[in-house]
Every structure is written in structure tokens, then in C-alpha cells.
Amino acid sequence: MVSIRHRQLFCMMMVMVGLLGNSAQAQQTIFNVPSADVTPKGEIFLQHESQFRTWRPGRFINSTEYSAYGLGHGTELDVTLFNVNAPATDNITLGVGLKKIVPLFPKKFPRQELKLTVGQLIPVSLQGQGVGNWSYAHLSARAPRLKTRVAVGVSTGTRQIFGRTTVGAIATLEQPVTKRLSLQGDWYSGTHALGFLITGFSYTLPYDTVLFGGYQIPNTPRCGRQGFVFEFAKYVK
User: pLDDT tens digits for 189-224?
Assistant: First the structure.
């Protein structure tokens, strides 16, 4: 069972890396927290994430498959597959929803890129764990000179994604270093399956593919273990 899932994940990664498309103008998440970007109208966004936990008895690999379609007017349709893990969690979940970006005072503060980001996802367990909810919202702004972008907000969700019903704070940080390299991080408060601080980088590769790498630190041992996070992302017209 595990080996089959490993092969499926490898195939998904290779398909995404091999697709042709435009340069990655944005991303759906920083690592786990939704970003203040939205998929451009008519484009498809694909992103694979794998988390490799430090080895001890228990879960070792946790994978998530993100996808989005740009609907225009600052809105995208999101479809995400959660909990494709080894060892298995018996709670593989498919989430469908929308993310909306609302620019705030764009004429008065154009360089600050003030934005309100709101999202709603309906997670449906494919293994009998029921239907849940995930709602989030955050405010973001960018420092004009340093180009640093910070977002702070709130998230609430149910066991299909978080392992239990939870309400807490979310935060992100993005710092461009060069045209290709950026430093970034995100954080969920609380003691649940996503209760981690993750810091790392993103780097634009040839063929318009973006690589993300990071390291996650749990808020408490109840959230899980430390480990590495790797992502591949792609825009396709």
C-alpha cells in the first residue's frame, strides 16, 4: 500500500515538473498558510508538497497536492488533496473552495500592496471521516523599499484537515533576495496537525518551475515532529 502511494506521488511530481507554462507569478500557499496571491484568470496552478518528518516510530511522509484555476476579479477555484501519507492516516481528504483577494486603497498606497485575503474550503474525507470546513482570512502589506511582505490573520477548520476542530492565528513572511530567490516562512498557532512554524526559501528554476524548501518546527510535541518541507509549483495556461 505504501509503495503504491510513493509511486503515485513520484509520478505527480514528475508531471508537474515536466509541464510547460508561464513563469510562476504567485503561489497558492507560502508553505501551509494561503498566500496573498491569486492565480491569474484562465491559468492553472499546480503545487506538490511533501513533508519529511525526523524518523521515529509514527508518520514519516505527509504529502499535499494543491491546484487552482483563476476565475478573474481576484478570485480562484481551489482543489486540494490532503493526507496522502505514509504510514497512512486513513483520512485522505479532497477539499474544494474559493480564495478571494481584495486590494485595499490601491490608489492611495500602491507600493504597500495592502490586501485582504479570504478563503473557504469544504474538505470531504474520501475514507469515511465526513465533511468539514476550513475558513481563513488575513491582511497583508509590503514594505516599499525592502519589498518584505507580511500577512496576519485567523483560520478555523475541522478534523478532516487539522486533526480536530481548531481556531487560531496565522502569519506569513516573504522577503525577495534576487529575481529568482526569496526567503519565506509561515505559522499556524495552536496544537493541531498544522501547528508549525516553517521557514525556508523559494527559487525559480528553468522551464518556469519553482522549487520551495524549508524546515518545520512544531508549536508543541502534540502537533508532530520537526522535519523538512519540499514543494514544486507550476503555472499552466
Answer: 999 999 999 999 999 887 778 899 999 999 999 998
Which helix (DSSP H) or strand (DSSP E) does residue 227 occupy? strand 227-236
* 148-191 pLDDT per residue, tens: 999 999 999 999 999 999 999 999 999 999 999 999 999 999 99
Residue 4 neighbours by CB under 8 Å, 6+ apart: none
Predicted TM-score (pTM) of this structure = 0.84
Task: Check whether the bond before 87 is cis (ω within 30° of 0).
Answer: yes
- Please state whether beta strands 93-103 and 115-125 pair in parallel, antiparallel, or not at all (unpaired): antiparallel
* Displacement of CA 78 from its chain's centroid (Å): 11
Read off the C-alpha cell for 193. Answer: 496537525
What would the pLDDT profile of 98-126 be if each residue is shown by its tens digit? 999 999 999 999 999 999 999 999 999 99
Residue 225, φ and ψ in degrees, nearest 5: -120, 165
Domains of the chain with CATH codes:
2-236 (2.40.160.40)
How far is 178 from 131, CA to CA, in rounded Å?
42
DSSP character string of 179-223: SSEEEEEEEE-SSSTT-EEEEEEEEEEGGGEEEEEEEEEESSGGG
